[in-house]
Specification:
Chains A, B: One of its GO terms (biological process) is organic acid catabolic process. Two copies of one chain form a homodimer. By secondary structure, chain A is an alpha/beta fold. Chain A contains 13 helices and nine strands. In chain A, strands 1, 2, 3, 4, 5, 6, 7, 8 and 9 form a nine-stranded mixed beta sheet that branches. Chains A and B meet through helix 8, helix 9, helix 10, helix 12 and helix 13 of A and helix 8, helix 9, helix 10, helix 12 and helix 13 of B.
Chain lengths: ~300, ~300
Amino acid sequence: MPPDTSPLPRVAVIGLGSMGFGMASSLRRRGLNVTGCDVSADAVARFVAEGGQGAATPAEAARDCDVVVSVVVNAAQTESILFGEEGVAASLPQGAVVVSSATMDPDIVRRLAARIEAGGWLYLDAPISGGALRAAQGELTILASGSAAAFAKARPALDAMAAKLYELGDQPGQGAAFKMINQLLAGVHIAAASEAIAFAAKQGLDLRRVYEVITASAGNSWMFENRVPHVLDGDYTAKSAVDIFVKDLGIVQDMARSAKFPVPLAAAALQMFLMTAGSGMGRDDDASVARIYARVAGARLPGDDATPESSV
Amino acid sequence: MPPDTSPLPRVAVIGLGSMGFGMASSLRRRGLNVTGCDVSADAVARFVAEGGQGAATPAEAARDCDVVVSVVVNAAQTESILFGEEGVAASLPQGAVVVSSATMDPDIVRRLAARIEAGGWLYLDAPISGGALRAAQGELTILASGSAAAFAKARPALDAMAAKLYELGDQPGQGAAFKMINQLLAGVHIAAASEAIAFAAKQGLDLRRVYEVITASAGNSWMFENRVPHVLDGDYTAKSAVDIFVKDLGIVQDMARSAKFPVPLAAAALQMFLMTAGSGMGRDDDASVARIYARVAGARLPGDDATPESSV
């Protein structure tokens, strides 16, 4: 028997959106053999043009793979690409690992992981954060949990995608639970930043001065510092869309209701994201929540025109 | 006429609590002539023992002064020490400046300033932040607004008390408005941190790991980073009491209602502070909001004993 030369693993990346494309590129740059798959043939063609391999279906992408990285939007899409028609399960070799990055309810993660493990594969719960730029640079933060075998099998791919890998436990669902705590806070902080900056505008304060004072004070948050500049510039081109937090705070609220745990702050924030999405701004930047406060209360934000309409 | 030798101003500090005592000491250390006054004779005696001068009433403290620094708890106390019996107005020389540091509704600040200015004095709206330690070190942040004359007259005192002086406009009330924006955010962030850490406990997550992950992630806030360690240590000795945010979010809600501006996040946070204060923890540390979530939902926080009672 020839010696095991431990070749770099073959990886399939399912979902070539703003995060997945960057992750696939990072994997390829580190010398891994990467096949990309997306419902958009254009996205696959772009990845092939960059030197990657393309596949028309998850089943085709997963054939002969050691690692499948799932980077779709939610639990329903994850289930579909794994177990749906032409899904990963139809072709993935036994013993391979599924690295699942969509933000999901931990209960759903546990159910998906059980199905994967029952099929003879490994499952790594691996939600991500960091945004598209850091995805493209291979510098994501990954909040991972799963068995030692799943970590070991996925490690070359994780190392290529992450600047910071948190190993948060040996059970799938733990990574997802950490992620949801982060999303609860992030969503509340975006809504609070929007409430505060619009209230400052209503009082006629110099908003750039407010930004300067708050970012140096105890009222600061990562989200205030990151999102309020979009309001100051009147630029609501989506860096992260309102719809993301409609989804993620929705998951928080479902989890909390199921656990009989009251989340009045997250619930109030979700209502503000729903108002914003319902007003036609779901695909705009999530700092658009500030525009809803301003419209409701007659405050004027930078870049407001006379007829307050959605930018979509 | 002899040349003006511009002697250092005589300063009265009214209110020798945890902030005022440190501010009075900082002023004295810089060589200013400082008289302290407080309803507590013990506090005055401590200041005298340190080498300061003491006075029994605001009127006595303000006699011959150039600057009066008011460091009481709220608008009612501020009005009382200025215009009440034996108040500052009974003795303060014409042209002196009142530096007012209590957190107040900007409308009330404008009314107090108008009365002071009508009396022939100057008014500087000067809310503070930074805590007792920085007060004692002369390193507060001061959010000030007022006339150029008020700033000029107060400057030697401001320089002795502040590491960072924001000059936010020429109208009293502007400093207060900036401060209330900060308090809105700070209060919401304490409640959100409490909601998140107790929800994490309910899910059985390792809370020190949650702290590590969140403080390195987009869900972080100044308050999460500062207050959650109190929860991790199970130590609710008041560094800043629940009652402070019952008051300050109450002011935010009153201001917002008066302006017909909805503040659903601040309103939800206020309800949590009210529940906490109403449960007997008003004088405990404001991280006690996390204990209310935990008690309501049956989550166990570090240091919880079997019988969930207030520590007061």
